Amino acid sequence: MSTHLDIWLKRPNKIYREGDIVSGVLRIQQHGELRHEGISLTMFGEVTLDSNPKPIQLAFSLVDVCRTGKIPSGLTEIPFEIPLVAYRNRKIYETYHGVYVNIRYKLKCDIKRGFLGKNECKEMEFIVELPKRPVDRAATDAKPLDVVISPSTLRSLSGIPNFKIDLHLDSIVCKLDKPLTGYLVFQKETLVLRSVELQLVRVEACTNTKQEADRTEIQTVQIIDGNIPDNLSIPIYMPFPKLFSCPTILTTNFSVEFEVNFVITFKNQHLVNENISITLIRE
Amino acid sequence: MTCGTPGTPDYVDFRPFEWKTRLDSTKILLKHELVRVRVDLHPLQRFSSQTDHATAGQSDGIKDPLGSLLDGNDPLSLLQKQAINQLFDELSDDSEATDVKLVHQLIHNGAGTSSSKPRPPKAKLPRTFKSRAIKRNINCEDYNTDATIDIHRLKLEISEHLAFDGEFLRKFRRLKPSELVMEMENFHEDMVRAWKKEERVEALKIVIVCAKLSMDTENPILYPLKYVCLSDILSKFGEQVYERLKIKEEIFISSLTSPKDPRKPASTKPPGTAQETCLNWFYKIASVRELVPRLYAEAALLRSYSFLEDGRMITELKKLTKLTRAVGDLIVNLYLRCYLCQMGMECEINLVLYNYFRENFDEFMITLNSFLSRDDFDDKINLNRYLETLLPGLEWLLKGITDRDPHVQDMLLRLFRNMPNNSIMLLTALKGFTEDFIVLNIDNLLEWLLSPELAEVPKYKHLMSLGKMCENIQTKSADCIPDKVLKTVWDETERLTDTSEYLNVVELWLPLSQNCLPTERVNSILQIFGPHVAREQSVERHSTRVENVVRNLTRYADDFHLLFISEHFIPFLNTIPNIQLRVTVCKIIMEALVQRSDCTFICDSVTLNSVMIVARTVHDSIRMSTVDDERKQIGNLLANFVRHVRFRDDFVRQMEFYSQARMIFYQLDIVLETLVHCINWLCFEQLKSVKGNHDPASLEFAQSCVAYNFITIPTLESPVTRLQLLIISGQVALANQCLDMEAINTMKKFNDIRIDATSTDRIRADFTFERTAHKEIIFKSYALQMMSILIVMPDDPDGKSVFRLCSRLYRAINSFEWKDPMMQPSLVIMLMRMYSAGYQEVYPYHFLNVDSNDTLYGPDELFRQKMDTAINVLMHDAIRSIIQLRLNNHYASLMLIVEELLAIIFAFGDLTNKSLAVLSIQLWDFCKQIPFNTKVLMTVQYLQDEIDTLARAVESRAGCHSAVPNFIII
């Protein structure tokens, strides 16, 4: 006698917003009859901070799907619907998988089996996305950025030949579902370019520990390979990864912010680093 | 008349008899003249090989068994042609060139740019061809086991760890082209295998590893090959993803329409939309760190964008085209763009909506332009090699533009022309522009080619490309290439210093210049060709090319004869250091000499002198070890050449030439044989010129001809040929009224030869003739021919012996060791026939101006007596043979002999002579005693009928003296 328990959501992409009703079916695949003492479904959302072992609850609801009874042999599908609402006076944040900060939303199904039987349990994560509230509209406007990098703008100067890099970002307020775009123009004269890499960096801080914010790399993509011609505008293009990025969060307990790093490597091992903070939003 | 019971007498006793020839037999013969029928076709003409078959004992088949199989081309020469073509393909000067050639072939065939006609883009990408070409390439290379093991280990490293460090790259760079293909094929298979095992991320990883390999341009020559393999893998990957998404979408749609189907087994995963999975793929790829693999992978999945929204493919392709700017390496950049265009074609993106070919080409031009504008290149040679790697890709892109939009070519030409260091662009233009455009702008292109900025650039590639283009133009429209182009090309060609390049260009351009190859040009080619060929090491490598060039030169030269009088011709031959090659070249020249239609006869001595040198070289190449086939081939060549020499009416000079030829070509029987025939022809030509009547001078010449044959023929090895030639030469001598020594000697020689012929033949019999019987048949036929000539051959005027030579022939027949017991007696009977014919008052035929015995001795009684005596001797000989045959129980042969003998007696014997009549009756009785004699009955029946007919004829012509009563007696 074996039981296979599964949770299927109605939305294939598993993305829900605040106020949405998370609906789907419980699927119990059963060989032989299954006696149980009730099936329950829990929906919860929580923030896990590295500094704090106890997660912060964001949402919670419990539904008794079924009372004590029997489940017949074969496949049983039990539909369910749970509304996604904030827990008391908490605020819902977007799903985010980080190093020190994690925000996750899960569905958990339990089949209680009394003393003798083994309880069946199944957990499933779903994704929560939050559109910007209309109040913050002003913050969503594009903010283009132009940076000129040349030996004079660099901190360490040790006989670097002359060069000039025009860096343009279309906006430092970035929409999560749109890529980071912009362009780079080089005037490097005798210098030979090897590579330009674009790092996406998260800055996570748990404010209650008074620790300094930690910078960790989310992803690095190469945007230029080899010695490209001068005065040619090279496009910058980087989509933001799912789960690992979310709208910038600043709360009293913790904060999640993002930066991009341009790492420019020349053939003679010279390395130029340009760091730019960006704000991520979702429309 | 009935046949008695066959008895078996122990011996046969014939009564003594006396032969007497009947005089009127010829008259009867003459009355029944054969009706002449004129035929247009020689009955044997179509089945020339029939005699051979007949000798081999397959005479029943009249139809030529090979004829039906061959319609124009015989399979052997076709095979040979193929082999040669293949050889040309494979035999390049060095491995690098082979690689480049292979790569070009792969790229071009892969992209299908060979035709300039606009076709739907899909049809231009025959994918299967690529892999076939690759596989063929693998098959043709040998692998040593070490290399295979090495590769295997390498593979393990990749598949287990997917490591991509410097060590791996170094190993990869050392691979040979075939190994590289093999390795990429392995990746391909691994990827497909991983996909089938549902390890899709693993498959993606393999794809990315392959794409990473494409970033390495350390060995630029192999890059296009690598690209072809990579594009195969990528496209396969893209296809797999697309197919899977499609299936997913179908499942999802069906799950929406019929949510529950109890018959279907419950799936273990919730249905997801294709869109969702597709997005996941793109997220996955977007996080690939390296730029080039990321762009390749994204391009490979281009088709899958169709699951997201309409028109997304175009925007993505546009984006990728822009992003490719960030690839700094020219080669990587270009081939990535090629792949984008290839994907554009595969996804059938409408070029009107987005001309990705144009866009990518323009984008690349920006990159290339800025690269070429730099003036800090350290290594120009390496730079050129590097740039040449771009050619296949550039050509492909350009074709993509020009095929669809030929009008942009003007603009592009101007653009190319204005670029710095534009040698590569000229090459691209020559390869990528349409033929029509090139024909129109040939002046511009030539001017560019000759421009000072290209002065230092080696023009080899340009000349080759132009040549290839002209080749196409010529095959299509049969237009002549303007002389101006040819002049420029040849001028430039003369400046090439590298032998291999020079030979390549000359090889290509010679056939193109076929309509315009004046003598000066040929001369200058020869002059420059010589020093190139003279280098020992180059000859070893380029011998095929040299042969080709000489072949084309001889084929296309305006005036072939002038080639021989060129002052550079003989020096050129002498500069070839390799004897083998020199001989081959000479052979080619000889072949051309024989084949060229415009070069019928050689009649001037300067040309002849040159040709003789060539011919002599060919002849002197024969060694003891030379195989028979080659000997035969050379022999045929030289024999043909001998026939080509004609001095018109100058017979003496002609004769001199033949004497010289005999001296030089002493090793080849075929040539000597031809010489004998030529001499005979010459003899008759001369006879014709004096209208059949020799004056003393011409007679002397004819005699010298006969003497020539008399000396030449015995040196031949094959006795059969000797016999044949002797008979022919003898007739020629007779026809030319050379009645004294020469003719007689020739005839004598014939009789003598047969004795030694038997001895040689016994040794050679095994391979000359299949069976001794055939040899005997041949000798018999020659002996018969001989007899027919001897009839009209006049005897010495002293009259001492009648048919002096015949008695010699008789002795020869007797001394021959016959295997077939029937041969000797049947030949003796034939001799009897001959003598009987000689007995007649008028011989059935004569040689013109030759008085035969009938004129000389006609009615002389003494002469006739001698004749009868001779026949008598022969008759006795025949009877002896009959007894011998009877004793040895050779009934079949016996029967034939007796019949023949009887026929002779009836035809020529004077049956009024009693002893002869008795003999014939005895023979007839003897005939009846032969056991198993079924033929007798038939003969009797036949004779009965004949007699009846004759009797009726006699009755109607009463009083006519005839042989009829004798028959009635029987």
Task: Note down, in words, how this protein is organized.
The complex is a heterodimer of chains A (about 280) and B (about 950). Chain A has strands at about 5-10, 15, 20-30, 35-50, 55-70, 75-85, 95, 100-110, 120-130, 145-150, 165-170, 175, 180-185, 195-205, 215-225, 235-240, 250, 255-265, 270-280. Chain A has about 280 residues and is an all-beta fold. In chain A, the strands form four sheets. In chain A, strands 2, 4, 5, 7, 8 and 9 form a six-stranded mixed β-sheet that branches. In chain A, strand 14 and strand 15 (about 215-225) form a beta hairpin. Chain A is elongated. With about 950 residues, chain B is mainly α. Chain B has 45 helices and no strands. In chain B, helix 10 (about 225-255) runs parallel beside helix 14 and helix 39 runs parallel beside helix 42 (about 890-910). Residues about 1-10, about 25-35, about 45-165, about 260-265, about 750-770 and about 960-970 of chain B have low confidence and may be disordered. The interface of A and B includes residues 220, 227, 233 and 237 of A.
Low-confidence stretches of chain B: 1-11, 25-34, 45-163, 261-266, 752-771, 959-970
Give a short account of the largest sheet of chain A.
6 strands, mixed
**Average pLDDT of chain A, to the nearest integer?**
86
Q: SS-based structural class of chain B?
A: mainly alpha
Assembly context of the chains: heterodimer
What is the rounded distance between the termini of chain A? 49 Å
Number of helical segments with 4 or more residues of chain B: 45
N-to-C SSE string of chain A, H for helix and E for strand: EEEEEEEEEEEEEEEEEEE
Question: What is the helix tally of chain A?
Answer: 0
Distance between the termini of chain B: 9 Å
Helix content of chain A: under 10%
